[in-house]
Fold this sequence. Notes:
This protein has 189 residues and is α+β, with helices and mostly antiparallel strands. The protein contains 4 helices and 10 strands. It has helices at 26-40, 79-92, 135-144, 156-159, and strands at 13-21, 44-49, 53-55, 66-75, 108-114, 119-121, 124-126, 149-150, 154-155, 169-170. A hairpin with a 2-residue loop joins β6 (119-121) and β7. The longest helix has 15 residues, at 26-40. The protein is globular.
Amino acid sequence: MTSVGAEGHAAGVFAYIGIGANLGDPVAQVRDAFVRLARELPDTRLTGRSRLYRNPPMGPPDQPDYVNAVARLQTRLSPRELLHALQAIEQRCGRVRDGQRWGPRLLDLDLLLFGDRELDEPGLAVPHPGAAERDFVVLPLLELAPGLEIPGRGPLEVLARAFDPAALIPVEEPVDEATEVAPRAGAGA
C-alpha cells in the first residue's frame, strides 16, 4: 500500500485502532466495534483484526476486567478526521466522556498508529501515548502485524519481550459469518 502525504490520499495508509470495553457485555461490544469500523467509517476499510483478549483493568482496581483487541484499517482520512470518526462511534455506542482516566468504559476506540506518522497536537497524539508499554496493545498488534514498528519506540517483536503473553487471556469467540468483517489474526488468516 502506498502512503501519500500527510492526509493519506491515493490508496491510503494503514492505521491501527485499539478497542476496549469492560461494561455491559464487553465481548459483544468489541465484536460490534469491528462491524462498525468496517461499515461506518468513510473512505476506510477494515483489513484485519486481532483476537479478543481479557485482561485486568489498567486503572482503578474496583472495576471489571477489560476485553481488548486491535483493528487494522486502510484509510484515506487524515489522522484528525479518523479520530473524530472513532469518537462519533464511541458516542453512538453510549460512551460518555466524563473526564475519568482509565475508568470503566462501554467502548474505547484509540488511534494507536497512523502509518509511520508521529504527531503531538492538541487532542491528538500518534503513536498513542503509552501504547508501547501496554501488553493489551503490543501483543495484539504483534499478532496482527508481526513486522510492525511503533514509530519512535521500536519493533513490536522487541517491545513484546517486556510482557508475559500469559497475562492476556484469549477470549473464545463464536464464528458468526454475519459479523466476520475482516480476517482474524491467529485464526489461519
